[in-house]
Amino acid sequence: MKKTGAADSFHCYRETRFGPVAIVWSVPHRQPKIRRILLSRPGLSAKRIVKSLFSSSTSSSCSEVDVVADQITAFLTGKDIHFSLAVARLDLCSEFQKNVLRAEHGIPRGSISTYQRIASYLGNAQAARAVGTALARNPFPIIVPCHRAICSNGTLGGFQGGIEMKRRLLEMEGILLNGSDRVVSGPLFY
């Protein structure tokens, strides 16, 4: 893990059914914005990730961040929440990643897409692997619902919170999977 530890960063946590979720934020241009959402995954707590990557950040929150944190918690219980990208520090992403994140953000609840379809939508059908990489490095999981992107063969691919979390999120949204974690039913987007 690459340590960023930005001194101008803050962090807060929410306990969820999937373990702690960390929200790392900063205040560029006098407006609180989310720098990273960190999901716990098997064997690695979001709290430990914050200590490793953002060791010089301060534990704090504010009303704007609390709203997003509460929405994330509600989303993880199955509530239908659509997040605004305006809360995210997209300025910290490359232009390609911004385009991928915006495309992924456009996939509605209950739908899925493939890395290949997203690449084609973005105008480069050969960029499926690059799309997968951009989503693997998604700094805003849940806000940008990267769990809705799967492999062309119907397998789940990866997810920052682990495959079990990805499967459970998709199932909460009505996507059907078989016992091999392969999508068998769900509207394709793009």
Structural notes for this entry:
Helix 4 packs across helix 5 (about 130-135). This protein folds into two domains: about 10-85; about 95-185, Arc Repressor Mutant, subunit A (Orthogonal Bundle). It has helices at about 45-55, 65-75, 95-105, 115-120, 130-135, 165-170, and strands at about 10-15, 20-25, 35-40, 60, 115, 150, 175, 185. The strands form three sheets. It has a four-stranded mixed sheet with strand order 3-2-1-4, sandwiched between helices. It is globular and about 45 Å long. The chain has about 190 residues and is of the alpha/beta class.
* Main sheet attributes: strand count, strand direction, barrel closure: 4 strands, mixed
Low-confidence stretches: none
The secondary-structure class comes to: alpha/beta
Question: Which CATH-level-2 architecture of the largest domain?
Answer: Orthogonal Bundle
- What is the CA-CA span between the terminal residues? 33 Å
CATH class of the largest domain, named Mainly Alpha
Q: How many individual β-strands?
A: 8
Q: Write down the Rg.
A: 16 Å
DSSP strand content: 15-25%
Helix and strand element order: EEEHEHHEHHEHEE
